[in-house]
Amino acid sequence: MKKVLVLVAVSLMFAVPAMALTIVGTKHDLSTTGPVNAALGGTIDEICVYCHTPHGADTTVSLAPLWNRVNTTLDGTEDLYASSTFNAAASAGYGYAGINGSDAVLCLSCHDGTSVTDTLVNMPNSGQTVATTAITNGNALILGDTEEMSNDHPVGFCYSQVQGLAGEELKAAPTVPLFEGDMWCSSCHDVHDNQYTPFLSMANGGSALCLDCHDK
Question: How many domains is the chain built from?
């Protein structure tokens, strides 16, 4: 009997489908059926085309498959971070260069306040128009007109190097993903899954996401 119950439990476990990640119906769904399209002005019902294209993609972008956007980069002329220790880290060689080598350039292609999709590499062939209005919402606007990130959480830095800086009490082994040891936007955000708004990689109740790295 015990063997039968175990077999039934195992079969039920495999019978339950895994929850699929999706951007459908989220604020990253810029199609005509998405929740933000009315403010952006597009007439296309495709969802993925705003970031990806099956043909004519920018193959120089290695961080995202079949990338369909013109990326935004920072030139390093402004203060990089509000934290003086992180600014010191930037001058040590893993600041702006690190940001421009991370996924931040992908995110900033929309969240820089310049445009949403008039910089698509390969426009859709449907004859419809895609949204071209800039993202101006303060919560979603990262760079704005000043093109600096001194009031945003640092990204593109080596976590272990910053961990040893004075005033930065960081835990040795965070559970958020690091990319070859570097902190990226994707360390805290999952662009395809809005289970934890706003597209967080884990729940932040009681500042759990923050405390995953910060030992304060």
Answer: 1
Whether 210 is covered by a domain: the verdict is no
* Amino acid at position 46, single letter: E
Q: What is the pLDDT of residues 129-148, one digit of tens each?
A: 888 787 777 778 887 656 67
Q: Does residue 111 register a pLDDT over 60?
A: yes
Residue 171 lies in a domain: no
Say if 216 falls within a structural domain.
Answer: no
Does the pTM of the predicted model rise above 0.70?
yes
How far apart, in Å, do the first and last CA atoms of the chain sit? 52
